[in-house]
Amino acid sequence: GAVVSQHPSRVICKSGTSVKIECRSLDFQATTMFWYRQFPKQSLMLMATSNEGSKATYEQGVEKDKFLINHASLTLSTLTVTSAHPEDSSFYICSASGQGVSTDTQYFGPGTRLTVL
Amino acid sequence: AQSVAQPEDQVNVAEGNPLTVKCTYSVSGNPYLFWYVQYPNRGLQFLLKYITGDNLVKGSYGFEAEFNKSQTSFHLKKPSALVSDSALYFCAVSGDNTDKLIFGTGTRLQVFP
């Protein structure tokens, strides 16, 4: 139980384009989803928290117009990196918590490696 | 403010020997403590957590951790290390009134055959 998937696992795009990353909870209802960014050999940095049907809450310093988060259903959240630039290249990881699993535990997806050329 | 410290960037241990990965924390209120493991180019896998109750928590793959309130520590342990345990380990904490996790900087565990 408590499986979270992400798609795609790896994406390469040109500077200026937008990229959408999907995060799905496969066997539970994710009332809350989290998006993290991880730089090489560094820890995870929380970008935003989203509750199903509500607007995401962004951490300080994270541009909400650049990183669009949608949590339209209890099993799907998307992160869209708009007008991506090379400095947006990173490993993006989502996590979820919710109903049918331990509500106080976040379960993580496998991550998406974004490379912007 | 919540914080987590993992004082060791890397821990080296021989296969079959016991291992300890250290974690200390700072949080207002009661801490919710977690250990996660990350393999290369993968997301984080949940190992174990302490919310309340017995200070010794047992988790996946034979790992355990001991909550020590006086020392504000939550060290991860395993009695006998395996080469396959080699990975990056993260300690994380959240507090009473938030579900946000604050992560430590991670400790790379290297188990040598």
Describe the secondary-structure layout:
The complex is a heterodimer of chains A (117) and B (113).
Chain A lengths: L3 E4 L2 E4 L5 E7 L3 E10 L5 E8 L5 E2 L8 E7 L2 E6 L8 E10 L7 E2 L3 E5 L1
Parallel strand pairs in A: 2-11
Antiparallel strand pairs in A: 1-3, 3-8, 4-5, 4-9, 5-6, 7-8, 9-10, 9-11
Chain B lengths: L2 E3 L4 E5 L4 E3 L2 E3 L5 E7 L5 E7 L5 E3 L5 E5 L4 E6 L8 E8 L7 E2 L3 E6 L1
Parallel strand pairs in B: 2-12
Antiparallel strand pairs in B: 1-4, 3-9, 5-6, 5-10, 7-8, 8-9, 10-11, 10-12
Could you provide a short overview of the structure?
The complex is a heterodimer of chains A (117) and B (113). Chain A is mainly beta.
Shape of chain B: globular
Distance between the termini of chain B: 41 Å
Which structural category fits the helices and strands of chain B? mainly beta
Number of strands of chain B: 12
Gyration radius of chain A, to the nearest Å?
A: 13 Å
Beta-strand fraction estimate of chain A: over 45%
**What is the N-to-C order of secondary-structure elements of chain A (H for helix, E for strand)?**
EEEEEEEEEEE
Helix content of chain A: under 10%
**Global outline of chain A:** globular
Provide mean pLDDT of chain B, rounded: 93
Number of helices of chain B: 0
| Most extensive chain interface and residues per partner | A-B, 24 and 20 residues
- Radius of gyration of chain B, taken over Cα atoms and rounded to an integer in Å: 13 Å
Helix content of chain B: under 10%
Oligomeric grouping of the chains? heterodimer
H/E element sequence of chain B: EEEEEEEEEEEE
What structural class results from the helix and strand content of chain A?
mainly beta
Please provide a written account of the structure.
The mean pLDDT of chain A is 92. Chain A has no helices and eleven strands. Helix content of chain A is 0%, strand content 56%. With 117 residues, chain A is mainly β. Chain A is globular. In chain A, strand 7 and strand 8 form a beta hairpin. In chain A, strands 2, 4, 5, 6, 9, 10 and 11 form a seven-stranded mixed beta sheet that branches. With 113 residues, chain B is mainly β. In chain B, the strands form three sheets. In chain B, strands 2, 5, 6, 10, 11 and 12 form a six-stranded mixed beta sheet that branches. In chain B, strands 3-9-8-7 form a four-stranded antiparallel beta sheet, with no helix packed on it. In chain B, strand 8 and strand 9 form a beta hairpin. Chain B is globular and about 45 Å long. The N and C termini of chain B lie far apart (41 Å). The model of chain B has no long low-confidence stretch (mean pLDDT 93). Classes of the chains: A mainly beta (117), B mainly beta (113). Chains A and B meet through strand 5, strand 9 and strand 10 of A and strand 5 and strand 6 of B.
